[in-house]
DNA sequence: TATTTATGTGCAC
DNA sequence: TGCACCTAAATAC
């Protein structure tokens, strides 16, 4: 259940561990058999995230496009590189890492890293290598030392470079994918302030700004103290700019930490506690009926375009 | 054991 | 607007 930060983490992980190596590509579940056959044996040349879309390019110029949808996730096994400074929240500790180059040893231990939902890391069920697919695995990418299994994606398809570019062109700016943050922010300002649609809906529209999902939407609007029902054209440009800059900060934090921690009021101890306790991570998301952390008024839950919207009716105006 | 829910999107009407 | 799709964990019974 990913928003943009998760997909960026996946892209970085695949870039670290799979790019530059010929891959054995298969579809244990069978639903991606044709696509897997097309990619099998090819070398991945790049892995990029734009919003919630993942693009893996191959030496054939084919592009594997993956969207995790609501419940997609990647499981990685084997000699998986640590991402960033190692501050990621982890579940039970994995088995000792296999050293580079030793994976083909007689008894390689494996660890399993899940990217996509609440991230977790733990020892694999057994030491078999390659690990048996767990659940419905749409595609398996196997470098020999790292296995990446994709489960439950809403999209997994092979595109030409042109087709992939067309998908990208339909997306709004992603703070991690723009050359100039301020310039990109003006695009978002335009796309929000010209519309009559509620700003809460516009922030979820991937053509307006890419990568924001239901949690970041709720939290960005609370942090801006803005009522999600405000029509886009009634939101001052400077407020949209502020939300865009804030999105850039939250996204970078999420990529670094692997956790959506959207409260800026916590000290180090509070942040540590929140990393381990999901109920402490947000201002309003998932807190329907609970008191607003600022004013104590019960947080309102309502539907906006079929998604749950959380807001404080007093703080957000 | 069955039902509900979820950090999402796309298409038919 | 409503539904279909996809999977697994949490919750209800």
TrEMBL record:
<keyword id="KW-0456">Lyase</keyword>
<dbReference type="InterPro" id="IPR000214">
    <property type="entry name" value="Znf_DNA_glyclase/AP_lyase"/>
</dbReference>
<keyword id="KW-0238">DNA-binding</keyword>
<dbReference type="Pfam" id="PF06831">
    <property type="entry name" value="H2TH"/>
</dbReference>
<feature type="region of interest" description="Disordered">
    <location>
        <begin position="91"/>
        <end position="133"/>
    </location>
</feature>
<dbReference type="InterPro" id="IPR010663">
    <property type="entry name" value="Znf_FPG/IleRS"/>
</dbReference>
<keyword id="KW-0863">Zinc-finger</keyword>
<keyword id="KW-0862">Zinc</keyword>
<dbReference type="InterPro" id="IPR015886">
    <property type="entry name" value="H2TH_FPG"/>
</dbReference>
<protein>
    <recommendedName>
        <fullName>DNA-(apurinic or apyrimidinic site) lyase</fullName>
        <ecNumber>4.2.99.18</ecNumber>
    </recommendedName>
</protein>
<feature type="domain" description="FPG-type">
    <location>
        <begin position="283"/>
        <end position="317"/>
    </location>
</feature>
<dbReference type="Pfam" id="PF06827">
    <property type="entry name" value="zf-FPG_IleRS"/>
</dbReference>
<feature type="compositionally biased region" description="Basic and acidic residues">
    <location>
        <begin position="114"/>
        <end position="125"/>
    </location>
</feature>
<keyword id="KW-0378">Hydrolase</keyword>
<feature type="domain" description="Formamidopyrimidine-DNA glycosylase catalytic">
    <location>
        <begin position="2"/>
        <end position="91"/>
    </location>
</feature>
<dbReference type="Pfam" id="PF01149">
    <property type="entry name" value="Fapy_DNA_glyco"/>
</dbReference>
<keyword id="KW-0326">Glycosidase</keyword>
<keyword id="KW-0511">Multifunctional enzyme</keyword>
<dbReference type="InterPro" id="IPR010979">
    <property type="entry name" value="Ribosomal_uS13-like_H2TH"/>
</dbReference>
<keyword id="KW-0234">DNA repair</keyword>
<dbReference type="InterPro" id="IPR012319">
    <property type="entry name" value="FPG_cat"/>
</dbReference>
<keyword id="KW-0227">DNA damage</keyword>
<dbReference type="InterPro" id="IPR035937">
    <property type="entry name" value="FPG_N"/>
</dbReference>
<keyword id="KW-0479">Metal-binding</keyword>
<comment type="similarity">
    <text>Belongs to the FPG family.</text>
</comment>
